[in-house]
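Most newcomers find our protein records easier to grasp once they have seen one. There is nothing in a record beyond a sequence line and a structure line. Getting from the letters to the tokens is the skill we practise here. An example says more than a description, so a record of this kind follows:
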Amino acid sequence: MTSNAEKFGQDNPGFQIENGENGRATKDSETKIKVDGIETERAQWGNGLEFLMSCIAMSVGLGNIWRFPFTAYENGGGAFLIPYIVVLIVIGRPLYYLEMALGQFTSRGNVQSFSSLSPAIKGIGYGQLLGSTCIATYYCSLMALTLFYLVSSFTSDLPWSHCKVEWETENSQRNVTCVSSKDTESVTGRNKISSSELWFTKEVLKEKEQINDGVGPPEWRLTLCLLLAWFLTFAVSVKGVKSSGKVSYFLALFPYVVMGALLIRAVTLEGSTEGMLYFVTPQWSKLARAEVWYAAVTQCFFSLNVGLGSIIMYSSYNSFDHNINRDALVVTTLDTFTSLLAGTTIFGILGNLAHELNVPVEDVVKSGGTGLAFISYPDAIAKFQSVPWLFAILFFIMLFVLGIGSLVALHGCANTMIMDNFPTIKPWKVSAATALFGFLVGLVYITPVSSI
């Protein structure tokens, strides 16, 4: 009986799979395919667990740590789970499974998958590639910031925990008072700003009041961090899935070790219960707002990496009969669980910060995204009475590992597209070229910015 893969190859002469009976993997974990009549070998995952771990590392990322908690807080707290889970079941999980099925069936990356189905929709693949490339270059700049904070954390006196003398002149001109992050004084006044926020804007980003004379060259310390982040990404992807699959165990599991340690610490802090309750307390009236449902769709797509081509790319390295239904269920469920775990931990620590400052929890939750990761959270850590540097190190290591897991997948989309079209090129050359391109584009994001 003719298999689906064989029928597909007959209808599309430019695409054929020769992978043993019923598309099963060969002993050397490689698939033989024909691209425009030329037979080439395509690598496969060492085993199904490598694929699952890689998908977990890809989907569980920064969106779970710094985007979901603030998005939920802004859109109904615990009530936000209702639209989020509805969107996950009705849209997110089916699309995740659909992309897995498309990649596994065609054994090609996202560009070639759409092209082999119909040349008319080839542009979808290129659109996904463009989107994933743009995100990857910016994503790695965030990894550079994370590395910068990580290196700066290896000191008993965290650098963002106190005000610097050189800030005083500029602050006096702006009629702003710097308050040390170590102080138990509220910094919510209009003319007060925390040392952690000033350190992020003045020392890390090198923010300027105006850029009439140009933005200037990239900040050299962030440039080195960006170079290191791309080098580590290249090292993971140097042999394609043969190398990234082995590293996926660490990228997928290590963040949960750190999150577990941070959660244990969070629940032992004074005031943490108020923060956690504030995070999960439902605001039912917000469910009637369309923007809350829109936020649920945005968060679901962003968190799962749906529509970027990375799911298609990863599943294209599976054997033809791999059980992707199980994997899609595991990854999407674990992604939601991780978002809840991260939100509980983050708001537990912010609850302690509110307790120390003697202010309501909402007064210490200033923003999500980079504001939460590089201002609010470091500010809370600086107020820890014991070993604040240790928790700073753990937090930024966790952020970096989560980011690398997602970045490797985004990086792999470009690598796979090139290798699908030029299968004779060595994978390490492709990975090096795309990493260098990403580094050069990423320099734009680490130039001094304007505060205007």
Strands lie at 15-18, 30-35, 38-43, 177-179, 192-194. Residues 134 and 183 are 40 Å apart (CA to CA). DSSP finds 17 helices and five strands in the chain.
